[in-house]
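User: Please fill in residues for this 462-position structure.
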């Protein structure tokens, strides 16, 4: 087969996942409780079909088999996250030696199979005890996080050289403090701003700590879900609404993480509405001095925006939604099995933006994928025929390839996700994997896309 779209040599092919979503063994191996374990205990009905995070895909017990499968389909990289509450139960203090052993085993097994581990420190999973002390609203939790990061660099930095401080830090802000889909289910823009700000300070502190270690060719960065904001029209009200959505949902992390400072316009909006967060002396310098070496970009869907049609309730809590409405663009292409828009060119627009406005920072697609409900309906001859997923990946890769041709500094592509996994409130509703997982038996089976990606990774293109 001839290769039309060839990727640069050494391109990172792989997939991404997170501790809570794949490890299972939530109450084993000395792991402490995190907010997901707690929330499930108190409100199991908020989870799709009442399924909680206790067992997920059981990677904790099956990692060897899974790493063989990764190797089989041509992965040269794989992203996992460390569970803070597994490594340091309770979030502070003593390290759990069983966890050290577990993560050492995974890292060693990946390396022995020619797969470079990309390690993320925080994927939505605050230790419950620290949440009780205020979670990201509390400044002392920021210091606990930096101490946890230091432990992780010390324990695993001799073998791991790609580190990430956070996955999608805006999501716990949206879920936990604006729109009620993560614990602690607060709806309050003021508190959301504080949480976002402290997360950014925590990021900068972890980067600062990282740089005191001598990690061979080590790089540290952050993973952001960038949702390019497209206005309904070019009229000034729509343009402004779209710009503000971009400030809140992309630039509130992208600018400080990469450029070392918050956008002036964002600060102005917060100031005007009396919503500036509490800061400490030295924060500004800390953020300025500790920008990311590398950026992971999660891209699922764009945001379509129009000017506000109805004025917000002036007595309600401050919300980003005061400034724009979401817009259901007629004729947009939808993923019929998940309800998200599919707009492949978004990936190109993000990359060009990084090139033009963010110093062409080294980046990669750290998540992209197609969730499908009831995917068993595509089962034929014992295998899920996920041609829709192959098309989805191919079309996104085509745009990524074009961006690279135009000089963008994109180094890889990770699918969300390696195997179907448990996903927060959605539990097992949407399936994303190259491999299916039987929820009861935990048996893994390749889907058609697994064979396809193997070929793509081996040829370094398609
Ligand atoms: C991203 C998260 C992942 C994963 C994915 C799919 O935002 O980083 O953790 O959950 O979304 O989400 P869902 O399963 O809700 O479709």
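Assistant: Residues filled in for all 462 positions:
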């Amino acid at each position: 087969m001839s290769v039309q779209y060839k990727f640069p040599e050494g391109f990172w092919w792989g997939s991404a996942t997170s501790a809570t979503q794949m490890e299972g063994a939530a109450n084993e191996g000395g792991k402490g409780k995190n907010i997901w374990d707690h929330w499930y205990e108190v409100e199991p009905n908020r989870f799709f079909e009442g399924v909680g995070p206790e067992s997920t895909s059981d990677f904790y017990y099956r990692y060897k088999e899974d790493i063989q499968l990764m190797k089989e389909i041509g992965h040269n990289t794989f992203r996992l996250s460390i569970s803070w509450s597994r490594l340091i139960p309770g979030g502070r203090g003593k390290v759990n030696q069983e966890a050290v052993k577990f993560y050492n085993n995974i890292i060693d097994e990946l390396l022995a199979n020619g797969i470079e581990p990309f390690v993320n420190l925080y994927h939505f999973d605050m230790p419950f005890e620290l949440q009780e002390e205020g979670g990201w609203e509390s400044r002392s939790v920021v210091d606990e996080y930096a101490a946890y990061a230091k432990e992780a660099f010390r324990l695993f930095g001799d073998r791991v050289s790609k580190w990430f401080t956070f996955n999608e830090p805006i999501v716990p802000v949206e879920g936990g403090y604006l729109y009620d889909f993560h614990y602690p289910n607060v709806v309050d823009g003021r508190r959301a701003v504080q949480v976002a700000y402290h997360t950014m300070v925590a990021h900068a502190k972890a980067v600062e700590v990282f740089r005191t270690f001598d990690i061979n060719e080590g790089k540290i960065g952050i993973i952001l879900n960038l949702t390019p904001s497209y206005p309904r029209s070019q009229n000034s009200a729509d343009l402004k609404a779209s710009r503000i959505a971009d400030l809140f949902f992309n630039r509130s992390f992208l600018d400080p993480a990469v450029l070392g400072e918050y956008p002036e316009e964002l600060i102005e909006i917060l100031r005007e509405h009396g919503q500036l967060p509490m800061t400490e002396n030295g924060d500004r310098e800390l953020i300025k001095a500790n920008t990311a070496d590398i950026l992971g970009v999660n891209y699922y869907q764009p945001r379509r925006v129009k000017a506000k049609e109805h004025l917000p309730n002036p007595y309600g809590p401050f919300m980003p939604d005061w400034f724009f409405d979401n817009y259901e663009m007629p004729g947009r292409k939808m993923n019929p099995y998940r309800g998200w828009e599919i707009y492949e060119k978004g990936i190109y627009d993000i990359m060009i933006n990084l090139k033009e406005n963010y110093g062409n920072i080294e980046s990669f697609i750290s998540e992209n994928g197609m969730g499908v409900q009831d995917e068993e309906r595509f089962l034929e001859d014992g295998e899920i025929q996920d041609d829709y997923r192959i098309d989805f990946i191919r079309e996104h890769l085509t745009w990524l390839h074009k961006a690279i041709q135009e000089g963008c500094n994109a180094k890889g592509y990770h699918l969300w996700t390696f195997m179907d996994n448990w996903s927060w409130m959605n539990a097992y509703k949407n399936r994303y994997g190259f491999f299916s997982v039987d929820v009861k038996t935990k048996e893994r089976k390749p889907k058609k896309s697994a064979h396809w990606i193997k070929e793509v990774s081996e040829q370094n293109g398609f």
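For context: The CA atoms of residues 136 and 195 lie 5 Å apart.
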